[in-house]
Design a protein that fits this description.
By secondary structure, this protein is of the alpha+beta class. The chain folds into three domains: 59 residues, RNA-binding S4 domain (Structural Genomics Hypothetical 15.5 Kd Protein In mrcA-pckA Intergenic Region, Chain A); 81 residues, Pseudouridine synthase, CATH 3.30.2350.10; 131 residues, Pseudouridine synthase (2-Layer Sandwich). 20% of the residues lie in helices and 25% in strands. The protein is built from seven helices and 15 strands. Strands 5, 6, 7, 8, 9, 12, 13, 14 and 15 form a nine-stranded mixed sheet that branches. The longest helix has 12 residues. It is globular and about 70 Å long. It starts with a strand and ends in a 10-residue tail after the last helix. The model has no long low-confidence stretch (mean pLDDT 91).
Length: 322
């Protein structure tokens, strides 16, 4: 265990969260700082504080770094990686459906993170325990663009950009029904469901959340939407689309069996679609090394193309340009 260290908070840091201030000062990933705080290794004026504690400037912050065990004892595992881009700082992947991003409760092995360790072993020294290089995540059954950091500096820069909403994230969603407006904005707070603790819900005292959408096409009782995720709450798109009364096709948690009310010829493909019809389509960010803007796109997965064709009898429409 390292010795206790001290930082004096400068006046210009007034208003910053404790975890964000330490991450910037120490050039350490923010989720690692949060681990120190949860473990009681950080005090503000000799008192423990939460990661969200707002600094006023002038305080003394004492901290004792925990020994790094970044990979959490994970063993590299073989598995395919669909790489869209890679360089010395980052890797951009097209994540398939059915693959969990990192280990968690009930999923100690067989994740994307395990595959990353085999092909990019340097990520073992980047990020928090069990999350080598992971700066953001997608749900297990969501496909599409995922960015992974290969260095601690890239991790810090990307984590900050994601946290401060400087990354553009566009999704494609296949939903039931057709929104009344061709474009719209959903601004509803999201929090933990009051009785089903694994689920999220629109809650008056939840965290602010905003989802913008644009209608691409609609036919035979379903619509294809472009989703601009302005914030990044857990299950945000799924919860907001349910609140809009246009739930995702195939969503076992937040969806509805609306296929029962549609024409008989379209019921089978909708009934049998076994995952939320959601795809992380495009992502734009500032490269952590060069400082240049970069754009990445993961093509529409085959199962969503097939679903649209089987339901509507038509090819998928041309998607909007960047």
């Amino acid at each position: 265990m390292a010795d206790k260290r001290t930082i004096q908070v400068p006046p210009e840091a007034s208003g910053l969260r404790l975890d964000r201030f330490l991450a910037r000062q120490l050039d350490v990933p923010r989720n690692q700082i949060q681990q120190w705080i949860r473990a009681g290794q950080v005090q503000v004026e000799s008192a423990t504080a939460k990661a969200s504690h707002s600094l006023i400037g002038g305080e003394r912050v004492d901290y004792t770094p925990l020994d790094r065990q970044v990979d959490g004892g994970m063993e590299p595992e073989a598995g395919d990686l669909d790489i869209l881009h890679q360089d010395a700082d980052l890797v951009v992947l097209n994540k398939p459906a059915g693959l969990t991003v990192h280990p968690g409760a009930g999923r100690p092995t067989g994740t994307l993170a395990h595959r990353l360790l085999l092909q990019f072993p340097e990520t073992a020294q980047v990020g928090g325990p069990g999350r080598p290089g992971i700066v953001h995540r997608l749900d297990k059954d969501t496909t599409g663009v995922l960015v992974v950091a290969r260095t601690a500096r890239a991790y810090q820069a990307l984590s900050t950009d994601f946290a401060e909403r400087r990354v553009l994230k566009l999704y494609l969603a296949m939903v039931y029904g057709q929104p009344k407006e061709a474009t719209g904005k959903i601004e509803l707070p999201i929090g933990r469901h009051p009785s089903r603790r694994k689920e999220m819900a629109v809650r008056p005292r939840g965290r602010p959340a905003r989802t913008d959408f644009e209608l691409i096409a609609s036919d035979k009782g379903i619509s294809l939407l472009e989703i601009d995720l302005a914030t990044g709450r857990t299950h945000q798109i799924r919860v907001h689309l349910k609140a809009l009364r246009h739930p995702l096709v195939g969503d076992p948690t937040y969806g509805e069996a609306r296929w029962k009310g549609l024409a008989p010829e379209v019921q089978r493909p909708l009934r049998n679609f076994s995952r939320p019809a959601l795809h992380a389509w495009r992502l734009q960010l500032v490269h952590p090394g060069s400082g240049q803007p970069m754009r990445f796109e993961a093509p529409m997965p085959a199962d969503l193309k097939t679903l649209w064709q089987e339901v509507t009898g038509r090819e998928l429409p041309e998607l909007p340009a960047w």
